[in-house]
C-alpha cells in the first residue's frame, strides 16, 4: 500500500532541510510591497520570499497568487504570516508598512503614528533575523530610516533608506529622454532628502564622462535658457502626478528596491544613492539620515562616496538635516 | 577702411562664438550618425486593459525582457497615463526602451503580440450569457481596432469566460485561427503542477501534468499523462484521479478549480499567476520556441467535436502562433468531458448577436 510518493521517489540526503541563503522578507503587502516582491521574484534574487502584514486575508491571497506562478519562477519557497517567525534568517528585509498622510495631517503626526507601528515591527524583524540588512521604503523615508535604526539596535551600515534611489532613476529617465539615450547611459545623482527638497548634483551630470555643466555652465540655474532645472522639478512632481492619475505609485519603486537588493545579495559594491546616517559629514552635527552615494555590498553600506558639492548644495543638505532633526527630536519612545 | 573691416571681422567672429555657445547641450554633446526614420519595433507587445491582470502581464513581460516596445490601451485615461508613467520611471532598471499608452489604438501599431485583458466581470446574479453579450459588445470596439493597426499580430485573449471570448475574438478579427489564442488552461496547468509538485517535494517544472478543455470548473485533468521523469503516476497508482483512490489525488484537481475563487475571496482578484503565465506564452511566441502549452484553440474536427468552439489542448507555439496541436491519448471519459464542454460553449455562442 505504498503511496505514489514512496514508489516514485527514494530520499537520499537525510537530515533537516537546508536553511535559505538569500532569503528576502517584504513587510507590508500593499501595492508597493507587492511590486517589490514581484520585481525581486522576476529578477531571481532570492531562494525564499516571506511576506508579512496585519491584514490576514489579503496576505494569504497574495501569497497564494505568487505560489500559483511557481512554475515560472526560480524562488522555490514563498511563505506568509502575521507572525514574524516566518521571516527568520532573512538576509534582506524590505519595510513598506505604515500609514499614509491623511488630508490636513501634519508630517509630525504622521511620523509619530508610523513610529508606533514600527515599534511593533522592527524589534520582531531583528529578533528573527539579527544579521539582516534593512531597507526602509515607507515615507517619510529619511525620518523612518532613522527611527528604524534606533528601534533596531543594528549598526548604521545595516539600515538603509530607499531614499533618492528612485528620484535619481526618474531624473536619469527624464534627462536621458531629452538626450535620446537610454537612462543607464546618463549619469546623474539626486541626493539629500527624498522628496520636495532633494538636491540634483548638476556638477556631476554627465554622459560618457562629458560634463553637461561644462557644455552649459548655467545648467540647473534660473538663467539657463534651456531650462534644465525643469527636469529636476519634473522629478519632484512625478510622484504626485502618478498618485493623482492612478492613486499610488508602485512599479518604479518596486524596480528600484529590487535593484538595491541585487547589489546587497550579490555583494556587488555598486554605488547607489540611498539614505544613510550622515552625522559628521558636510558639517552636519545631528543623527539624521540623508541620501548619499553609498557603496553597497553584502554587509550593507560598505562606504560612502565623498561628493564634490557646491556651497549651495551643502547648504541645502544642512537645511534638510535641520528640518529632519526638528521632527525627530520630538519623537517619543525611541 | 581697414579699421572698419577689422571690426566687422571681429564682430563676425564674436557672433560666431556666441552662436556656437548658443548650441544646446544636446547638440554639443551628441552628433547624430545614422539618419533616416526611426527603426520600427521588432518585438512589440500591446496589453489592452490596465487593470490588475493587464498590469501584471505588462510587468512580467517587462521583467522577462521580451519586448522592445510596450503599448498600453484602456478607456480610463488618467489611470492609463499613471500606469505608463510609473513604468517609465523604472526605465533605468529595464531593457524595454519604449513604453507608450493611449486611448487611441494607433499606439498599438505594428505589435507582434496583443494581450487582451479588457472586459467586465460578472455581477452578482448575472447569467454567463449576459456577461458574455456585454463583453461581446466591448470586444466589437476593441478587436477590429487591434487588427487594423497590427494585421499580422497574434492575439492572446485572457478575459473571462476565456474560451467563449477567444471564439468571439476570432470571429471579430477575421484572423486565421492559428493566430488567435486563449490563455485557457495554461494557468490551471501551472497551478496543478505547483500543487502536485508540492505534494511530492519537487519543483513544479519537474512535474509533468496537463489540464485541458474548458478553463474553469469543468477543466479536464489528464491523469494518464501525469509523470515525473517519465514515470507515470497512474502506473504507480491505477486509481489516481478516481473516487476510489485512497490517496485522494483527485483533491488536487479540485484545489486547482477552487484556487481562483479562493484567491479572489482573500485579496479581491488574482493577477500575479496569470500575468506570469501570459509572459510564458509570450516568450514562446516571440522567440519562436515551438514549446508546447495548454492554450485555448479552435477544436472543431478534433475528438468528434463538430462546432466551432475554443478549448484548451496542448499546442506547439511559435512565431506563427499555433504551429500544431499535440494529439493526446485520452480516455473515453475524458473525450466525453471535452465534448460536453464543447456543447455547452456552443450553446452560449449560438445566441450571441452581431458577430
Structural write-up:
The model of chain A has no long low-confidence stretch (mean pLDDT 94). A 6-stranded parallel beta sheet of chain A has the order 3-2-1-4-5-6, with helices on both faces. Chain A has a 3-stranded antiparallel beta sheet with strand order 7-10-11. The first copy, chain A, has a 3-stranded antiparallel beta sheet with strand order 12-13-14. In chain A, helix 2 (31-42) packs across helix 9 (251-265), helix 4 runs parallel beside helix 5 (141-152) and helix 6 (165-179) packs across helix 8. With 334 residues, chain A is an alpha/beta fold. Chain A has 10 helices and 14 strands. The first copy, chain A, is globular. At the A-B interface, helix 1, helix 2, helix 3, helix 6 and helix 8 of A face helix 2, helix 3, helix 4, helix 7 and helix 9 of B. Chain A: NAD(+) binds at residues 28-33, 53, 114, 137-139. Chain A: Keywords: Cytoplasm, NAD, Oxidoreductase.
Identify the notable features of this structure and list them briefly.
6-stranded parallel beta sheet; 334 residues; NAD (chain A); alpha/beta; 3-stranded antiparallel beta sheet; L-lactate_DH_AS (chain A); EC 1.1.1.27 (chain A); homodimer
